[in-house]
Amino acid sequence: MSDTARNRNTWTHGTSRRAVLGGAAAAAAGFALAGCGSDDDGGDEPKGRKKGEKITLTFWSWVPGIDKPVALWNSKNPEVRVKVEKVSAVDGAQYAKMHAAIKAGNPPDLGQIEYPVVPSFLIDNGLLDLTKYGVADHKDKFIGWQWQQSVFGKAVYAVPQASGPMGLFIRQDLFEKWGIEPPTTWDEYEAAATAIRKKGAWIETFSATNGNRFAGLAWQAGARWFGTEGDTWTVSIDDEPTRKVADYWYGLVRRKLIKTIPDRQNAWYKDVQTGDMASWLGASWGDALLVGNAPKTAGKWRVVPMPQWKKGDAAYANWGGSTTAVFAKTKYPKDALAFAIWLNTDPESIKLLIENGYGTPGAKQGYTTSQLDVHKDFFGGQEYSKVFDEASKGVDTSWKWGPATDTLYQRLGDAFTAAIGNGSDFRSVLKKVQSQTITDLKEKGLQVKAG
Amino acid sequence: MWAGLSNYAHALEDDRFTAGFGRVLLFGAVQIPVMIAFATALALLLDAASARWVGFFRTAFFLPYGVPGVIASILWGFLYVPGISPLVEMAHSVGWNVDFLGRGAVLWSIANIVTWQFTGYNMLVLIAQLKAVPGELYEAARIDGASAWQVARHIKLPLIRPALVLTTVFSLIGTLQLFAEPKVLKPLSNSIDSGYTPNLAAYNEAFTSNNQHIAAAEAVLLALVACVLSFGFLRLVGQRGKDGESG
Description:
By secondary structure, chain A is of the alpha+beta class. Chain A has helices spanning 2-21, 23-30, 67-76, 93-104, 120-123, 144-148, 172-177, 186-198, 211-221, 240-254, 266-274, 286-293, 333-345, 347-355, 369-372, 385-393, 405-422, 426-443, and strands spanning 55-61, 80-86, 110-114, 151-152, 155-156, 158-171, 226-229, 232-235, 279-283, 301-305, 318-326, 360-361, 447-450. The interface between A and B is medium-sized, with 31 and 26 residues.
């Protein structure tokens, strides 16, 4: 019975969408319009749960320990059971699976989706616009820029969970031994890199395939890779701030002041363990990563703010972080949203999430910064989360991700791989990726122009 | 929507994809002869009258084939990563500053994994064919005073020719389909891009960029090339075989 009902619902849902939006191209272009998303879902809204009806919502996530807050929810809400299905997060496999499920018409009710990837789900109409279900009432509970990451036009497509404000992890003991001050500007960073190199170690690596961090670096410098003008996407990867960043890192690579090995892989972990790499430009979730992979360096690390372009500035960026999104096909949008809000704002839930190291909460309240200092001893007693908390306040809120971030990372990775291989400068990378991205978006049926 | 051949045109215009083809062809031109020569040598050695411990060595040589490609790549990956690998350490201690995962070397590091994996398998196919050689031929050769080398050269090699052709064709197809090794080594190396081999390019189009149509076109092109090369090779050796018989 319920199966038939579901099928019928699915079918009408699909048809009305197509009728309204008239083909894939229009659908793809349409979401960038202000107020889009209010035009679909016409008269076929899911009926939702009847009073007293017991339902089960599926939730795809890969976050370790997410089952703990979910278990808490289930004990408090016997009628709306949430079932976590773990998905692989290797190489974006989880998103491939979600996109495939949307195409096949059987996505889960809820999903864990990282900020940069949210827009890609608007192209296949995979996510539910939550404004109709009163999501706006909860806006003030979340940190502004994180909320904005899921806002397109007037529509809100996801509930913020956590972010990764960036900071510089340094080996305090080595810096002290070598008489090097922790860098506060990028000029000082370069000087530190030179000094550390003279001691036979390295300050860092520039990983060709880490497009995510490179985006963070550009973000800090004031770049805005993507934007929308009406229903047209603007792409400006080859803009002045990004060029400045590219030139800077190219200089470090060319003068061999920095390694070029991939990060967060065996060789990198080894360098972190041995002190061959004396710092890491990471993000707030990096504490758990260092603790887990270099336990013997406990007590030797500190966190300092990300170096600035101009002394005294407080411009920061974000690397990582994700949302809880509700998929468009859910039969119980109200309950799904209620769970998403509870998961990310309830103090008890946040506490459980923090204990498992999920990053800096997207919620404004319900926790204290000291609660985030889970690994205080590892950082020699430093209240390191204050550094990230400050950084979070200095994140440029106008940054927007484009609709094909995974492809963008791949393009950047390929171009940086080639540039590092043949020694060409990083401006050539930006030029190439800019034109490739415009082509990529056009092929998705979107209206694009160079910004 | 009917796209005609535009997806194929798009795939062929992508220099990353075509470079991947060039790469696997170069790989095949070097790795297949080396591996087949190696497999033939091992098969002949194990088939020689003076061979000892044949069962043990046959199993030992064949064993790597039992290791799945992904696992083999992970194992070798550890042996390639500087700072962890004893091989790299040894090389450095004798002054050889090698980077197995670097731009120039990584293709041959992959070739090494593939050779390690498949030499034993090919050897086994060749041994099977050698076992089918009638004993009278050897007897006659011995009576004629042929040395072990002459027996190998003039009796065994010509008679296992069909098996050699078969293993070469299989290797050719396998080479074009290279996927697991570069996929597993990619995160470890700064020199493998997303289109390193045609299969990897198709995979990334489908599952990273969500472009199933381009991916499908790339897969079809790959199948076409594999088809042309395999049948081309068969034709080539078939022709030569006939020439040999008539001459």
